[in-house]
Amino acid sequence: MSVLLVEDDMSIAIVITAALEDEGFSVTHCDTIAERDRLLGERGYEALVTDVMLPDGDGIETIDRARALHPDMPIVILSAQNTLDTAVRATDTGAFEYFPKPFDIDELARTVRQAAGNAQGKVSRGDEPLGDGLPLVGRSPAMQTVFRMITRVLRNDLTVLILGESGTGKELVAEAIHQLGNRRNGPFIAVNTAAIPAELIESELFGHEKGAFTGAVARHVGKFEQAAGGTLFLDEIGDMPMQAQTRLLRALQSGTVRRVGGREEIRLDTRIIAATNKDLEPEIAAGRFREDLYYRLNVVPIHMPPLRDRSDDIEVLARHFLQHAANEGLPRRQLTPEAAELLSRQPWRGNVRELKNFIYRLALLAREDTIDVDSVVPLLAQEPVGTQQAGVQEGGDIASAISHWLSVERPASGTIYERAMAAVERPLFAEVLRDTGGNQLRAAQALGINRNTLRKRLSELALDPEEFARRS
Ligand SMILES: Nc1ncnc2c1ncn2[C@@H]1O[C@H](COP(=O)(O)OP(=O)(O)OP(=O)(O)O)[C@@H](O)[C@H]1O
């Protein structure tokens, strides 16, 4: 069996050739697209293994020329540009498989064997080109696995269950599946099932008819119906009350919903993506989550690893968020390699969300445009207790915290008031918002300040009240 390998990095080409030869292939190697096309013009191969960035062009963009010559030849794509966008572009060519670099060489060899032996090995090709990917960033092997899982569910309506700690990016993954998938022209409706009072959840999800219960003064269209033609994202599914779980299961089994107080069975045309930060198996064992619902939802599981287990991603995420902060009007900052390294060693128990908030704060408060270790350390010390390490706010009274802060931070003369206020307001507002579950009106009342003043300061401090609503 013969394979054509298109790879311009000689050291990688040598390793792949050896592994494929061990699998019994004879390997022809070339390093340009022009040479690829010339060789394919001469004869067919059992499989084509190709890099993306080649000296004379893009291996994905030009794949149609190879395919025109040998329509049934399976194609395996290798890429060093490990973005979701490349994964999607590669899969969209109908490639048999996509391997982000670095990859497991034995897995590649096994895959090529499988591809060569499998005439039906193509995945279906999308009819329309896909738009730019969502800003879902990550270069760790764990995130590459997530990208590959995402590409597998774009051309079907399989139910996806996204599992992972709070702040790992579950909602962003759900949005990416929607926006890159077949249903991108329909609505994306997200429901936080834990935030809806138990007695309202059925009416929220399935809708109700006028007069169905006291207070049902008009017909209400539920989230399932609102998501028709699109995607329904059921967040925090592990916290859904039992009765609502039963209704949800029934809807998924029958493929229909009925509004509370209604008779009509309405056909569902909604892709379901569910997410939870709870480990569902103990919930099932404790009788708090229906096992049959779990199996219904867990068709394609996607595991979002905690940020501490993929520290390779921290630097790219930090630079990505600095860029975002600048686009949103905060000062444009650069991170020194040492500062990036320090960030990569932090535990980030609040995961990407905590890192994102931290980076926005850094962009706001740093003294220089180039952020070095000296700018990061004092802010790390202020991270809320329970997420990062204990901070100055833990020790003693406010006066001693301020004197400690002045000695550590040493703010430039003329900036002390503004910087001290920011340093004090941030943990204060965070604490009060946490207490009020993100309710700004109640937070403003508790603080004894005007609601508009609070809203303005929250936005200046890059504090998102939504975040406290979710965690409450
Ligand atoms: N890989 C990533 N690239 C870029 N931004 C990310 C990534 N992962 C998460 N984020 C950002 O981090 C924040 C938290 O992500 P998200 O809300 O998706 O987490 P979650 O797992 O759904 O959290 P929760 O369980 O609390 O609902 C969001 O602002 C999101 O845009």
SS-based structural class? Answer: alpha/beta
Indicate the CATH architecture of the largest domain. Answer: Orthogonal Bundle
Q: Tell me the distance between the termini.
A: 59 Å
How many separate structural domains? Answer: 3
Radius of gyration: 26 Å
Shape: flat
The first-level CATH class name of the largest domain: Mainly Alpha
Order of strands, widest sheet? 2-1-3-6-7
Say which molecules are bound, naming each kind only once.
Answer: adenosine-5'-triphosphate
Q: Outline the low-pLDDT stretches.
A: 119-133, 385-396
How many beta strands in the DSSP annotation?
18
Number of helices: 21
Strand content: 5-15%
Biggest sheet record = 5 strands, parallel
Folded structure, characterized:
This protein is α/β, with parallel strands linked by helices. It has 3 domains: 2-116, Rossmann fold (3-Layer(aba) Sandwich), CATH 3.40.50.2300; 153-303, P-loop containing nucleotide triphosphate hydrolases (Rossmann fold, 3-Layer(aba) Sandwich), CATH 3.40.50; 307-471, Helicase, Ruva Protein, domain 3 (Orthogonal Bundle), CATH 1.10.8. 46% of the residues lie in helices and 14% in strands. It is built from 21 helices and 18 strands. The chain has helices at residues 10-22, 33-42, 63-69, 84-92, 105-116, 141-152, 170-180, 201-206, 223-226, 242-254, 280-285, 291-297, 312-327, 337-344, 351-365, 373-381, 398-409, 416-435, 440-447, 451-460, 465-471, and strands spanning 2-6, 26-30, 47-51, 53-54, 57-58, 75-79, 97-100, 160-163, 188-192, 207-208, 220-221, 231-235, 256-257, 266-267, 271-276, 300-303, 334-335, 370-371. Strands 2-1-3-6-7 form a 5-stranded parallel sheet, sandwiched between helices. A 5-stranded parallel sheet has the order 9-12-15-8-16. Strands 4-5 form a two-stranded antiparallel ribbon. A hairpin with a 2-residue loop joins strand 4 (53-54) and strand 5. Helix 14 (337-344) packs parallel to helix 16 (373-381). The radius of gyration is 26 Å and the shape is flat. The N and C termini lie far apart (59 Å). Residues 119-133 and 385-396 have low confidence and may be disordered. The structure holds adenosine-5'-triphosphate. The site of adenosine-5'-triphosphate has 20 residues, from helix 7, helix 13 and helix 15. Residues 2-116 form the Response regulatory domain. The modification 4-aspartylphosphate is found at residue 51. It is found in: Cytoplasm. GO terms for molecular function: ATP binding; phosphorelay response regulator activity; sequence-specific DNA binding. InterPro entries: AAA+_ATPase, AAA_lid_NorR, CheY-like_superfamily, Homeodomain-like_sf, HTH_Fis, P-loop_NTPase, Sig_transdc_resp-reg_receiver, Sigma_54_int.
